[in-house]
């Protein structure tokens, strides 16, 4: 049975690693093959092919439910019902619509919308809205969050922005109760932590601030402020333990067998908590796991500890194979597997505090290779933080939050209990703040496969039971963490990344021993592209610090992420064409025309138009020359600045040209394009942007000049290797079945 479960899981999990889905006729062949080999010695292949075929079929259905390409970027009137809990962040209301109806055929069954300055939207309501829809698409930069995979795993077929709307009908009786309960919880004082209480009770994390998330991430405690398998499991364990203790102390009725009742109450409590949390995918996973463990405890304990883990894994994947695209899926199941590996078969009984300490140490070390593979931050303080936070949250704060919620109908009593829970949460965040300030989260550089395998083997060896010889060897296998192998350009060459940052700009230029960043990406309110995209990309590429942060000018789409880059990478110098408009904390220096320097055989030169009358014209222009192959970075200069540049002593002929002002009509004059003489032009912009960049006239001008166009909105992040005279490479060329080209 274990072999069959493993083979089935392998087939289901293979979807995560598919570059593209096989055509439908392949699935029919797999079914025939499965039937043939099922009665032979190759029977595990039958389960493998069945799992693979089912996963591919689910992936195909999800892709077919996306917004058709011909409707991409258009505005439609549509009607649908609000699903889940809408979130409010600043003046933006975000929600999902299902049960879609419209005059236009082909709209997907689930749409994720954002309404800027919109009214209050409640779960279960039916709205008619005019929304500009686009196909599921995210920024594709190296080593950053894959938003397209996340959208597909949640079966979101389109995203969009609401232009206008009207409420057609309120939530039906019996629905929308979670939304009302959330509102009730947010109205409670809870010592300023009502948002965290709502996150623990109904699974709504929108009440946590960006600063809260940073602290949780830095201390490896994100899992504690969302309803995860740990909370569901601890509640079930608490109920089971209360019945067991009552039976041991003679307080349980003798006519009722305590074990069946303990398992039933624990399972019922877990399912009730899941129902309260809306049965989101992580909660479904947790409830399924708890129920299987309880059934194993009641009837099948003789079959071993690995069987319920494998059954739960297969059941979750059969229910929704696309869940394998979510990082939380891998972390939760591998955490359970790691605990089973560490504690199964160990001799002796540990005291509770030693058990908790070993569990936290094992989890932190054992999940290290998983975090590396997923490109997630690694908290160096996680073992200590979780040692404090896990028992406090799971055994005290969550039960108090649930108890206070149940007692809200009793005047003052429920509010008092929630006030105590909020105070404990505040105390916890105070401790976590100290740990986060002491040791921020570490973003490790991306590793080649051989280095990752070394680290994975090292963690397994270290976690072997005491007394097994050779455990010290595991520490040597962790050497790639201290000395990560980084692919650096050779002397005389430069590696250039034009990041996919949407409607903005950020370009990394790295030589053998130096690195600079030209612009830091945009910032939209609390959403900082510098923090969310640029910084993780640079750390994943092995950039531990910057020699220079060059901000062409002070507009938000170019300098919005500068403070986040300064906090994370501490550049030695900050230079800008508009230093007076930048935050003083950056300590910017003015860009000076004629300034030149050389790094590792690569030459750099700056230019700025001193007569500029606005920020765009004052952009600092950078020329990079690696072995005769040149790149010209132009910021947002306009036609007047281009003419001034042509009349200057700055040499501007280049093999590669970053289009000024994202291809705006006010830039890229015919004279300028001819003078640069580039063979290829690079464009950094967002798809369907409101400015119409790049302008059709500019595109036509480039085509008439025989210049190739490489667009981050179409191709994702672009990579050049100056000095090699090679074609540009694009991240969207790396095939993923969920990713559009």
TrEMBL record:
It comes from Stutzerimonas marianensis. Residues 503-687 form the Metallo-beta-lactamase domain. The chain crosses the membrane at residues 232-252, 258-279, 300-319, 325-343, 364-382, 388-410, 417-438, 450-468. GO terms for cellular component: plasma membrane. Its main location: membrane. It is found in: Cell membrane. Pfam families: Competence, DUF4131, Lactamase_B. Gene3D superfamilies: Ribonuclease Z/Hydroxyacylglutathione hydrolase-like. GO terms for biological process: establishment of competence for transformation. Keywords: Cell membrane, Membrane, Transmembrane, Transmembrane helix. It is a multi-pass membrane protein. This is DNA internalization-related competence protein ComEC/Rec2. InterPro entries: ComA-like_MBL, ComEC_N, Competence_ComEC/Rec2, Competence_DNA_uptake, DUF4131, Metallo-B-lactamas, RibonucZ/Hydroxyglut_hydro. It comes from the Bacteria.
């Amino acid at each position: 049975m274990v072999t069959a479960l493993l083979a089935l899981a392998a087939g289901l999990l293979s979807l995560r690693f598919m570059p593209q889905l096989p055509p439908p006729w392949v699935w029919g062949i797999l079914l025939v093959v499965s039937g043939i080999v099922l009665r032979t010695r190759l029977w595990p292949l039958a389960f493998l092919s069945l799992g693979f075929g089912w996963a591919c079929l689910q992936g195909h259905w999800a892709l077919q439910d996306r917004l058709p390409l011909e409707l991409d970027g258009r505005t439609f009137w549509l009607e649908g019902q609000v699903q889940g809990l809408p979130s409010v962040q600043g003046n933006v209301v975000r929600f999902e619509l299902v049960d879609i109806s419209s005059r236009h055929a082909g709209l997907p069954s689930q749409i994720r919308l954002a309404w800027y300055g919109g009214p209050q939207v409640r779960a279960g309501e039916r709205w008619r809205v005019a929304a500009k829809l686009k196909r599921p698409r995210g920024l594709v930069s190296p080593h950053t969050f894959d938003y397209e995979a996340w959208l597909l795993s949640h079966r979101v077929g389109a995203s969009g922005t609401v232009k206008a709307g009207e409420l057609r009908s309120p939530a039906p009786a019996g629905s929308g109760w979670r939304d009302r309960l959330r509102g009730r919880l947010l109205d409670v004082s809870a010592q300023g932590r009502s948002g965290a209480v709502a996150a623990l009770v109904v699974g709504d994390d929108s009440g946590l601030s960006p600063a809260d998330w940073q602290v949780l991430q830095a201390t490896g405690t994100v899992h504690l402020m969302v309803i995860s398998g740990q909370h569901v499991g601890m509640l079930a364990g608490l109920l089971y333990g209360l019945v067991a203790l009552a039976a041991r102390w003679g307080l349980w009725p003798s006519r009722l067998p305590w074990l069946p009742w303990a398992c039933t109450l624990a399972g019922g409590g877990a399912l009730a908590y899941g129902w309260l949390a809306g049965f989101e995918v992580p909660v479904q996973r947790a409830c399924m796991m708890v129920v299987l463990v309880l059934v194993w405890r009641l009837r099948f304990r003789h079959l071993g500890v690995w069987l319920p883990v494998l059954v739960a894994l297969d059941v979750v994947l059969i229910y929704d194979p696309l869940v394998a695209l979510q990082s939380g899926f891998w972390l939760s199941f591998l955490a359970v597997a790691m605990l089973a590996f560490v504690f199964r078969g160990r001799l002796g009984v540990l005291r509770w505090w030693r058990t908790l300490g070993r569990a936290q140490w094992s989890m932190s070390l054992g999940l290290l290779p998983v975090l590396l593979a997923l490109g997630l931050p690694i908290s160096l303080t996680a073992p200590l933080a979780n040692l404090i936070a896990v028992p406090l949250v799971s055994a005290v704060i969550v039960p108090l939050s649930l108890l206070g919620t149940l007692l809200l109908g009793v005047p003052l009593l429920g509010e008092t209990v929630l006030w105590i829970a909020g105070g404990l949460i505040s105390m916890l965040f105070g401790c976590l703040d100290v740990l986060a300030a002491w040791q921020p989260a570490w973003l490790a550089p991306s590793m080649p496969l051989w280095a990752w395998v070394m680290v994975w083997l090292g963690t397994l060896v270290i976690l072997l039971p005491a007394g097994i010889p050779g455990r010290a060897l595991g520490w040597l296998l962790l050497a790639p963490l201290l000395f990560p192998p980084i692919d650096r350009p050779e002397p005389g060459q430069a590696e250039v990344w034009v990041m996919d940052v949407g409607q903005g700009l950020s370009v990394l230029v790295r030589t053998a021993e130096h690195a600079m960043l030209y612009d830091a990406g945009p910032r939209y309110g609390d959403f900082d592209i510098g923090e969310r995209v640029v910084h993780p990309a640079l750390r994943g590429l092995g950039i531990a610090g910057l020699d220079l942060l060059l901000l062409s000018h002070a507009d938000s789409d170019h300098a919005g992420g500068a403070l986040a880059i300064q906090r994370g990478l501490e550049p030695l110098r900050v230079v800008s064409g508009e230093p007076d408009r930048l935050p003083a904390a950056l300590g910017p220096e003015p860009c000076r025309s004629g300034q030149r320097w050389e790094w590792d055989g690569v030459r750099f030169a700056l230019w700025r138009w001193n007569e500029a009358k606005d920020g765009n014209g004052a952009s600092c222009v950078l020329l990079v020359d690696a072995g005769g192959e040149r790149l010209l970075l132009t910021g947002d200069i306009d036609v007047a600045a281009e003419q001034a540049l042509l009349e200057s002593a700055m040499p501007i002929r280049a093999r590669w040209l970053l289009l000024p002002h994202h291809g705006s009509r006010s830039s890229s004059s015919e004279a300028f394009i001819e003078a640069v003489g580039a063979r290829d032009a690079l464009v950094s912009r967002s798809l369907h942007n409101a400015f119409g960049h790049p302008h059709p006239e500019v595109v036509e001008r480039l085509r008439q000049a025989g210049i190739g166009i490489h667009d981050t909105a179409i191709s994702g992040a672009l990579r050049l290797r100056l000095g090699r005279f090679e074609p540009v490479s694009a991240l969207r060329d790396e095939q993923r079945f969920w990713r559009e080209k």
